């Protein structure tokens, strides 16, 4: 039997990163979602590190929105121990079309495909082993969840072979959902129509079952989170810092906070819940920052409270301001004693004066 590391070395990694990240605006107004800093690194870098750790070295990024960001940052991948190629979709092609669009850049007969929005912890080598052991044409990573009603369900038989793809239902027959990570044989990718919008979930997979293709599931209960919303983005970053979600990039550095060495944190500051403090940020005395992402150059003045928030680069939070479940765009200014709660989003460059927004009658 071929060892799993050898299998990984002969497997292409394909990452689909073409989405616009609209649910994370205004953070994604200028930066593609996979490049947003999570636990001190662009989110995509955590995934690339896991791919490298599993033994895959050739990566193809399927890009569309702000495609130039990826190549400018990662280059050819040499610094990460990878070989990275970039394929740009002129028009978004959907998941199936995006996979088909990279076909000419694949080097091997097998490709592991990742959704660039998902923070995952599954054992990639084990998924690959499941695929090869079953002589599968396609293998899906299937996640067991407590409440599968909000997801499409993927039942399997006693041998792990996929029997159906079901839309969301109030009475799901299985707790297994599609986790957005697949292993494809190259021959299957070649069957997808070129230059067309195609969905793997609604078109490719059902068609494979119809022709009785060998489609299998690798089932586990690994860490999994789609970072598509501000709440999930903050929680994913927190889980990385606290070691709940795995990443080779911060192994051995887990705790209540991850603070860049260049940041200034005054006395009496409380940093809790897996908070990240970015390069050159300054946090004033007596401030409390809990389960938040504080990006480069942010200033949080004394006595402010920031909880479950993302504060973008160069923003300023005034003294004794209180922010909960908020997103503050680049360079915005939140005046002293302001209150932002419950999903508030401040666009880049906006300035709210001292006491200019609050929910309590007096603070």
UniProtKB/TrEMBL annotation:
Nucleotidyl transferase domain boundaries: 13-240
Q: What CDD domains does the record tag this protein with?
A: NTP_transferase
Question: One matching Pfam family, short form?
Answer: GMPPB_C
Q: Which Gene Ontology MF annotations are present?
A: transferase activity
Q: Does the keyword Heme apply?
A: no
Locate the Mannose-1-phosphate guanyltransferase C-terminal domain: which residues?
255-348
Keywords associated with the record:
Transferase
Tell me its family. Belongs to the transferase hexapeptide repeat family.
Per its record, how is this protein called by name?
Mannose-1-phosphate guanyltransferase
